[in-house]
Amino acid sequence: MPVKDWMPAVARAAASERKLKIGESLFRQGSKTVGLYEVLSGCVRLVRVDRAGHEAVLHVAGPGDTFAEASLFSAQYHCDAIASTNASVRLYPKRELLAALDKNPKAMKAFSSTLAHLVISLRTRIEQRNIRSARDRVRHFLVLNVGSDGRTVELRGALKDLAAELGLTHESLYRTLAELERSGDIRRKRGKITLSNPV
Amino acid sequence: MPVKDWMPAVARAAASERKLKIGESLFRQGSKTVGLYEVLSGCVRLVRVDRAGHEAVLHVAGPGDTFAEASLFSAQYHCDAIASTNASVRLYPKRELLAALDKNPKAMKAFSSTLAHLVISLRTRIEQRNIRSARDRVRHFLVLNVGSDGRTVELRGALKDLAAELGLTHESLYRTLAELERSGDIRRKRGKITLSNPV
DNA sequence: CGGCGTTTTGAGAGAGCTCAACATCGGTGG
DNA sequence: CCACCGATGTTGAGCTCTCTCAAAACGCCG
Fold first, then answer.
1. Which residues, in sequence order, are CB contacts of A115 under 8 Å at separation 6+?
2. How many A-B residue pairs are in contact by the CB < 8 A criterion?
């Protein structure tokens, strides 16, 4: 559900905006939670960095998406938020938002619904990561991200970013896409991938 | 938060119980949602099965845990629930529970909090699946699951089940544990694993 | 004691990762 | 307008690690 449809006016009034340069971090894992964010433009990714220095991409939020929902019930952020492009975001401060939700059961319910759908999409991502084969993992992603025509996927950002989101090396993704194109399963055209045999 | 602490009396009154034999399924992906479950005894795992027939373990719920939270905001279950042991569960029917939550903002808030913490733990699981090395993935799991002494992990169920939960083959897990034991990083004793160098 | 599922170890193959070189594209400044 | 530069995209070769298939020891329960 779009944030506009449930965000209480009080919380909206208390919101502030901020611009981010590409690569800039909005918060880090362990830092104190200040509230919930909405992406106004650009893309922000949520990642965790393991000791080997690898980024695990947990989520990519685009315009209209919210992120850091769980921050309302946690004292610290549990991942890093980094701008994948130049971006602007709106912050709904935790204190005011929680107070407004307490007074507005309908909004609280909508917020719960948002969290519930987030849970479902996270589980889909776990399912994705369980697929070993690069080919199948890419196909899995494509099928789940086709647009309204049922066969075309619009890519947000670079293929390199997609590789990170899929948990593959960019080399592996390039090769896999090339193979899929050679075998006729997909067609590519600058930022778009079309499935030849939509499911 | 334990379900007892927030579950409205009305919903509790409407609950029913059910026993499951090991391997029995409680619901399947795509089946109509009937409500939220609590595990009374045994273990229930949530899985998705990909077309290759592999199970991706999304969650394992033990006594006191709830599962299928998102069902309240979805018409169909998005994964399978299968008993990993003989188990008994309690069903809080969707209709009555939603009605009770609507009338009880505090309970709704607690439910949101439960969802938020679920989101965090799911992201931790994604982080885990992003670790390629079996050794590191096992260590990651162990560190996150130590008991109150900070070094001992109590295993629920068989190592084979743990392997599935970690997204490894059981052979790989056995080998990895054997290596960790040989190198002195862990010690094993029937159902318990102790870290030699707790973090 | 017998049977079944778990645990363990072995050998081989496949697939993705790593390192490396190069091509291509987009933006910047002269 | 062109040259330059960095980031993205592409392809090659080799290696490592896990998966897979196989076989056997072990443990629990009837």
1. A69, A70, B112, B115, B116, B119
2. 119
What's the rounded mean pLDDT across residues A107-126? 97
Best to test chain B binding among A49, A71, A73, A137 (most B CBs inside 10 Å): A73
Six token digits for residue B199: 């973090």
Average pLDDT on A171-179 reads 97
Strand order, beta sheet including A186-189: A152-154, A192-195, A186-189
> Secondary structure of chain A: what % helix, strand, coil (to 5)?
40, 25, 35
Structure confidence at residue B192 (pLDDT): 92
Res A51: pLDDT: 80
Is it the case that residue B191 has pLDDT exceeding 90?
no
Hey, which residues 174-193 in chain A have their CB within 8 Å of chain B?
Answer: none
- Nearest to residue B177, comparing CAs of B133, B129, B135, B128? B135
What is each CA distance from B108 to A118, A175, B86, in whole angstroms?
Answer: 17, 48, 31
The model scores a pTM over 0.70: yes
Cα torsion angle, A177, A60, A144, B46, sign = positive
In the sheet with B25-27, reading across from the earlier edge strand, the strands are B25-27, B80-83, B44-49, B55-61
**What is the rounded average pLDDT of the residues B37-61?**
93
Using a 7 Å cut-off to protein CB atoms, list the covered nucleotides of chain D.
8-13, 17-22
Contact A112, A101 (CB under 8 A): no
Residue located via tokens 């909005």: A26
Dist CA A5 CA A14 (whole Å): 17
**B160 Cβ contacts chain C strand, under 7 Å:** yes
